[in-house]
């Protein structure tokens, strides 16, 4: 059955009030709520509720919650494609090699060569098939950092398909908390971790940034990887510092070449030091330590 996203746009303060109220109202039904920043300068955020089944009734309930908060924005809806449909469209993707990793779909299982660590990514609703320069950069950087530093507790923030969490678990056999703001990505991440036989190492959870009580229970991490975008990464710098073990490493990507210096400045301000930068297809992946 397809899923429907009910959503509206508002400013940051109202978006967070709505997030809390909707989360409470729909917690028992299991409908996830998410906030996404659309435009920081114009203070526009999008609040979404992901539902299956009786959309009209749920939309009416959501309207009631919004009315209770004095929010009169129009409630939009989007029917999300079924996973199988998207998976089909991915069948033409070629396997990608990054460092020792080979990221491939089910149809290319036999293409793995001796010594390669194969990661099978089937679903296409979440970002992360290895074809993007940021994912490939993170995979290469991860291999080097994990082999040198032997981390014991890792976080993959903005996990998408869980490709990076799976790579860490396959290399190091350690617990990896894999979080994403998008509940569909979180679901796909858990499925992919199981498919790659690392379900017992990878815990996939829905969380925007570090806003979830589970970070308190799982921190500190000695390795954090986050392939998001430059601006949210800069905003997250203080929380990255708070959640990292002293001497730990972070790997950041989703940063354009020209944004590198600004991101480094934000992290230098939190006493991180630059170790290495990888350049791929106009994107950079940065390794920092603190
Ligand atoms: C570029 S994709 C990276 C996916 C995968 N880690 C990879 O490297 O291919 C970014 C992911 O981060 C998620 N994301 C964006 N902002 C986030 C935030 N503030 N907190 C958690 N996840 C976020 C998006 O939903 C998306 O799945």
TrEMBL record:
It comes from the Bacteria. Its EC number is 2.1.1.-. It is found in: Cytoplasm. GO terms for molecular function: protein methyltransferase activity. GO terms for cellular component: cytoplasm; ribosome. One of its GO terms (biological process) is methylation. The keyword Protein transport does not apply. Its main location: cytoplasm. Pfam families: PrmA (PF06325). Keywords: Cytoplasm, Methyltransferase, Ribonucleoprotein, Ribosomal protein, S-adenosyl-L-methionine, Transferase. S-adenosyl-L-methionine binds at residues 135, 158, 180, 227. It catalyses: L-lysyl-[protein] + 3 S-adenosyl-L-methionine = N(6),N(6),N(6)-trimethyl-L-lysyl-[protein] + 3 S-adenosyl-L-homocysteine + 3 H(+). Belongs to the methyltransferase superfamily. PrmA family. Methylates ribosomal protein L11. This is Ribosomal protein L11 methyltransferase. It comes from Oryzicola mucosus.
């Amino acid at each position: 059955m397809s899923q429907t996203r009910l959503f509206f746009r508002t400013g940051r303060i109202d978006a967070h009030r709505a997030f809390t109220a909707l989360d409470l109202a729909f917690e028992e039904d299991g409908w996830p709520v998410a906030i996404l920043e659309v435009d920081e300068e114009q203070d526009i955020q999008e609040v979404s509720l992901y539902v299956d089944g009786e959309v009209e009734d749920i939309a009416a309930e959501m309207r009631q919650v919004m009315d209770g908060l004095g929010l009169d924005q129009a409630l939009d809806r989007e029917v999300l494609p079924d996973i199988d449909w998207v998976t089909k469209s991915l069948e033409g993707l070629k396997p990608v090699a990054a460092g020792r990793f080979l990221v491939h779909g089910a149809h290319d299982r036999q293409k793995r060569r001796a010594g390669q660590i194969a990661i099978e990514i089937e679903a296409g609703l979440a970002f992360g098939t290895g074809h993007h320069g940021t994912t490939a950069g993170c995979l290469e950087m991860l291999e080097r950092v994990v082999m040198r530093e032997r981390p014991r507790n890792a976080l993959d923030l903005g996990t998408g398909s869980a490709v990076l969490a799976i790579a860490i678990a396959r290399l190091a056999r350690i617990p990896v908390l894999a979080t994403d703001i998008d509940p569909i990505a979180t679901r796909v991440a858990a499925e992919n971790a199981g498919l790659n036989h690392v379900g017992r190492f990878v815990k996939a959870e829905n969380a925007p940034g570090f806003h979830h009580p589970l970070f308190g229970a799982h921190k500190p991490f000695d390795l954090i990887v986050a392939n998001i975008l430059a601006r949210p990464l800069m905003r997250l710098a203080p929380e990255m510092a708070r959640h990292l073990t002293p001497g730990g490493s972070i790997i950041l990507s989703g940063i354009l070449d020209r944004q590198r210096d600004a991101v480094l400045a934000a992290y230098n301000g939190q006493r991180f030091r630059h170790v290495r930068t990888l350049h791929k297809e106009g994107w950079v992946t940065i390794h920092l330590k603190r």
